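Hi L., both proteins are below.
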Amino acid sequence: MSMMRTAAAAAGLLALAACQTSGATPSAAGDPVVAVRDGQTTLRPGQTVAIALPSNGSTGYAWSLADFDETVLMRSEPFGQEITGAHPAGMVGVPGQTHWRLVALAPGQTTLIFNYARPWEAGSPAAETARFAITVR
């Protein structure tokens, strides 16, 4: 009986390690994995990765996602949606977060690169860049 418990515990730890990422939040079945900014996130096919970046649309700045390998990850919802905290109607300058979710499709690697810039300032460097390395196994 003790040997069965040890084997079950080992199997549970291996399963948890398989869906862990370097510093990312482990998820229960069906819950999204929170991606690690400037780090590595590892997923299994079918898992969802969630990314939230601080934003303030009233400044004119917006996050945009550069091309990524769509054979590895598929867009999901929300995708690029800015959500602000509660505030009085008509109040401007309220900070929020822009959210993305992507679903792991097949084994592979891709890097998600987000640029925070004003769309009308083409050619100007982004005010901020965020990178997320994603591996699907």
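That was the first. Here is the second:
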Amino acid sequence: MTALSTVQRPSVPQWTPPLSGEELVHVLVKLQTWQAFDADALLDDVATALDDVPPSEEEAEEMAQRLRGHLMRLVNIAIAAGAESQLVHRFSSFRTVDMGELMRELPWAA
């Protein structure tokens, strides 16, 4: 019979959480308010914007806000994926564009 030898285990540092409680609450709030990108809604809004029949001014303003939201989600997805390019930076500047004015410049206004 052989004697059992004592195995020395390496010391392991005590685990510390990567985020504080306050930071975890912030992450939780972000997760709870997160909305997935809806490509179908984007395509519906683009189709409406490019339709031959112009929407009413109120509808155009609402659609402009939705299109801005779609565009901002796409920009955020591109940046998160590491696809930062000149085009992404150009689109990110749409946060300050008057979307109502942009909507008036669409094809039906010609």
